[in-house]
Amino acid sequence: MDKLSVLAARQPAAIGRRATLQGWIRTRRDSKGGFSFLELNDGSCLANIQVIADAKLANYESEVKHLSPGCSVTVRGDVKPSGGKEQATEVHAAEILVHGWADPESYPLQKKRHSLEKLREWAHLRPRTNTMGAVMRVRNRICRSIHDFFQEEGFLYVHTPIITASDCEGAGAMFRVTTLDPAAPARTPAGAVDFAQDFFGKPAYLTVSGQLEGEIYATALGKIYTFGPTFRAENSNTSRHLAEFWMVEPEAAFFDLEDDMALAERFLKRIVGDVLRDCPEDMQFFQERIDDTVLDALRSVAERDFQRLSYTEAIDILAASGEKFEFPVQWGADLQAEHERYLTEKKFNAPVILYDYPRAIKAFYMRLNDDRRTVRAMDVLVPRVGEIIGGSQREERLDILLERMHEQGLNPDDYWWYLDLRRYGTVPHAGFGLGLERMVQFVTGMANIRDVIPFPRTPGSAEF
Ligand code: 4AD
Ligand code: MG
């Protein structure tokens, strides 16, 4: 059997081939002349292929004329030039085998358009829609670019653990992993839950970031990246937060913050360039149906230098902007989404890299500057989405790292192995984390992060 994807069958090069296509019916239209047009989709591309089903087919009256959206079929036929404007080719069916019916009375995707909110209730069926299909193909292309980019730059792919005993971000937003019986956990003589009797003999959690373990491998192998699921139990019901999301985190020995920012900029440009080149049909769909600014935004990322400015400069710009912000602009306070949007959308209309943040609002591991007020942190902000990358040069000096841990109420004993990296052959090093879903949001223009991941996990929601 000469199997062809819809993508391949749509190419003029396929004309003249006898081929087998397999997929799901999107629509059926019967012509008066005694044949039917079927639109077949198999997920290989956004477009369908038109199948001409002649009344002479053995099962035309009994089956073909009853096909409806969602039915699964195998079509054997000849690829021929199409008379239609929409497509170069069409398939003239010699045989149509029906695998599965989809009762039009109950199949939810019968109706042409549903809201994205409604589609979230059907996480098992929404991949069959144009929007989710396009999102998933672009997401896949981005993941491939992530690996291509870091492999070509000489980074080694390292798998950091998903279950961990340490809190990288120190924000306490971790999911606990336990096999203790919640109704009757083992208890200490004093009555507290006795995690010494838990599976790992101590409290354990789902990781919020692979960075700390990434640093272990970077300070041995030079340049590494980790790419996997991360988990945060923050109760934030926003269009940019998930409880389970994917993060790619490069970490490089002998990198300073300048190297780190340059790497981040090359990385984002590479992803955007690959998507623009390889996903033109899906990107045209996002431009027309989701957000008509998305192509311009991507081209400007690919072509223009990112704007770099220190946190202090950003505060000055915001304070002088004359904008009415809901949250006050004040040196020392974290930037809010409205501030990020002003900088990326109104002021620069481009990605912005902010660096040198106040020490009090950033994690303990970021390298302290000589001013002792700021740390070598950097965030990459993009229009619409805001923060897409967070990173820093790491504190490689043992005494200052200890000072920072005490300041943030962390117990150095819990991080003895992290401190050992500073005791034995310490080196300057830096890295960052890109949230995959925020990147997919930026690239596709999708407004809600729940619509760029197959199965979104958010507070109160983990149905599938
Ligand atoms: O800025 P964050 O918290 O940085 C870290 O975790 C560092 N340890 C990374 C590193 O230096 N290796 O998170 C990094 C990125 C954010 O910029 C954002 O894109 C994404 O991860 N992110 C989330 N994405 C979706 N839902 C959430 N709840 C997210 N929290 C962070
Ligand atoms: Mg951050």
Could you list some keywords that capture this structure?
binds magnesium ion, OB fold (Dihydrolipoamide Acetyltransferase, E2P), binds 4-amino-1,4-dioxobutan-2-aminium adenosine-5'-monophosphate, alpha+beta, BirA Bifunctional Protein, domain 2, 2 domains
Fold and architecture overview:
This protein is of the alpha+beta class and 464 residues long. The chain has two domains: 2-100, Nucleic acid-binding proteins (OB fold (Dihydrolipoamide Acetyltransferase, E2P)); 128-159 and 237-451, BirA Bifunctional Protein, domain 2 (2-Layer Sandwich). 28% of the residues lie in helices and 24% in strands. It contains twelve helices and 16 strands. The strands form three sheets. An eight-stranded mixed β-sheet has the order 6-10-11-16-15-14-13-12, with helices on both faces. It is elongated and about 85 Å long. The two termini are 36 Å apart. The site of magnesium ion has 3 residues, from strand 15.
Structure in a nutshell:
The chain contains twelve helices and 16 strands. The chain has 464 residues and is α+β, with helices and mostly antiparallel strands.
